[in-house]
Amino acid sequence: MQVEGVALVLGAGSGIGCAVAYTLVAQGLTTLVCADINLSQAQETATSSYAVAGRKREGYEATAYHVDVREEAQVQALVARVKDRYGRIDVCVTTAGTPAANQTPISDMSLETYRSMDEVHNIGCFLVVREVIRAMINQEPLLTTRQNQTRGSIVVLTSLASEGAFLGVGNYSAAKHAVKGLVQTAALENARNGIRINAVAPSYVSGPMMDKFLDGAPAVKDAMLDSEGINNLHFSSIDESRLLHSWKENDIAYCWRGLLLPL
Fold first, then answer.
1. Does residue 259 belong to any structural domain of this protein?
2. 60 tagged catalytic
3. CB under 8 Å to 82, separation ≥6 — which residues?
4. Residue 110: is its pLDDT beyond 90?
5. CB neighbours (10 Å) of residue 261?
6. In a domain? residue 138
7. Does 234 reside within a domain?
8. Using alpha carbons only, how large is the chain's radius of gyration in Å?
9. Which among 60, 65, 83, 176 is annotated as catalytic?
10. Do 198 and 257 touch, CB atoms closer than 8 A?
11. Catalytic position from the list 172, 180, 204, 254
12. pLDDT at 206
């Protein structure tokens, strides 16, 4: 898949977001904007991406910005800065998220714990998708490699938790279910505007977010990694993840609308 234009990747400082940023660059991206709540990590991704692009990639540029997706003003300012600097946003991938701190049954969960997860995954996703739609909707449409006209593509990272229930992480699962509904509704509303909006739902991927969750839930970790038990699971590394394969082979950013792709 050939990726062109300007891409904004949120959560680009580490984990899947960082890997997605590098994958887009490797596929021919000309401008990468890395955004993360940890600015130094976003800057590291942006700087390292030049090696991925190669010195022969004339005109390639990568920048980094701080953003807290829970804050409406910060999301609005980020999108405005990118649009003002580059004139358009062709691809937006939002992977920003936070893991459940530990396993807590809903009956024991505080409102603060439930709400804090929703603010990052659900409200944060809503703010990003809304602002990027507003930025894309007035852009001149471009012709894709498949000869379709598009004003841009938005891809949201959800989780297999959006497709079912997982014990002790009801706040996380509920937020991801909400994101699925948001993506599908936004896709229907904006298909006629030439804006594609899709989601990918990875399973267990070894990385900073999964490691943090398992550190707070040792019993879950032991059960998952029990090599002799029926609960034994294979944790894909980020490089092994089908998420990156889907970018390379399936044109997720350019073909489909309102799809949730389990990985």
1. no
2. no
3. 6, 8, 33, 65, 89, 135
4. yes
5. 17
6. yes
7. no
8. 18
9. 176
10. yes
11. 172
12. 57
